[in-house]
Amino acid sequence: NAGDAEVLDMQSLVEAYDLYLWLGSGTVVDLGSLSSAYFIDMEGGDDAEFPALETVLDRINLNPGSSDLDGDTAFPILASVETLSIRTIQAGSFSGVTMTVYGFNALESAGRIEFNLDSLEELGGFNGLTEVSESIRYTSLANATEIGGFEALQEVGTTIALNNNPNLVSIEGFDMFEAGGVIAGNNGSLA
User: Fold this and answer.
1) CB neighbours of residue 92 within 10 Å
2) What's the CA gap between 171 and 168, in Å, rounded?
3) Per-residue confidence at 1, pLDDT binned at 50, 70, 90?
4) Averaged pLDDT, 103-123
5) Rounded to two decimals, what is the model's pTM?
6) Do 139 and 116 contact (CB within 8 A), yes or no?
7) Residues 6+ apart with CB under 8 A from 102
8) Could you give the CA distance from residue 117 to residue 84 in angstroms, rounded to a whole number?
9) Parallel, antiparallel, or unpaired for β 109-116 and 146-147?
């Protein structure tokens, strides 16, 4: 029927090497049994959930589209990923749209975490994450005024990089951690 959501039933998929999902608005993906993957690239997918996914050996690329991203709903038991990249494919593609990224509280370790999302207004969550072996990068968060979360983070291997975030006023949650260094440039309002 017109207006009904498209449902992609992938319940029997247990492992995936490369999983590419380009999903339109209203598409529901059932990946109920996927427990490990090497690489996931997802564009859109407001209703994609990975309830059994614990480990991604290489990378998750997320372009959440024009809605908020709740990592606790989409990835409720994801404990480990080499690289988590939450980004906009094309800068300005969601001009005028603001969104929030939160959750991912089951995530315990990562190699790299990258945020490059011009529509991001609020960032929180990641409260189970204790170690990032390489870096956390915040780039071109044009609408973000504050970054929060990361309450349990104890160590960042090389750097925390903040670049081209013109409206960023505060960073919270990085209370008790060691980092190789902090790189910051063109962050307008950040003192």
Assistant:
1) 10
2) 8
3) very low
4) 90
5) 0.81
6) yes
7) 68, 69, 70, 71, 72, 122, 123, 124, 125, 149
8) 13
9) unpaired
Instruction: Give yes or no for a contact between 44 and 62, defined as CB atoms under 8 angstroms apart.
Output: no
Strands of 120-123's sheet, edge to edge? 69-70, 99-102, 120-123, 146-147, 170-171
pLDDT digits (tens, 9 = 90+) for 134-175: 999 999 888 888 888 888 888 888 888 889 998 888 888 766
Distance CA(141)–CA(33), nearest Å, equals 34
Kindly state the tokens that stand for 147: 């970054």
pLDDT value at 107 more than 90:
yes
CA distance 168 to 8: 38
Long-range residue pairs from 46-54, CB within 8 A, at least 24 positions apart, any chain: 47/5, 48/21, 48/23, 48/74, 49/73, 49/74, 49/76, 50/74, 50/75, 50/78, 51/76, 51/77, 52/77, 53/77, 53/78, 54/78, 54/79, 54/80
How distant, in Å, are the alpha carbons of 27, 31, 88 from that of 20?
14, 13, 16
CA distance 35 to 59: 15
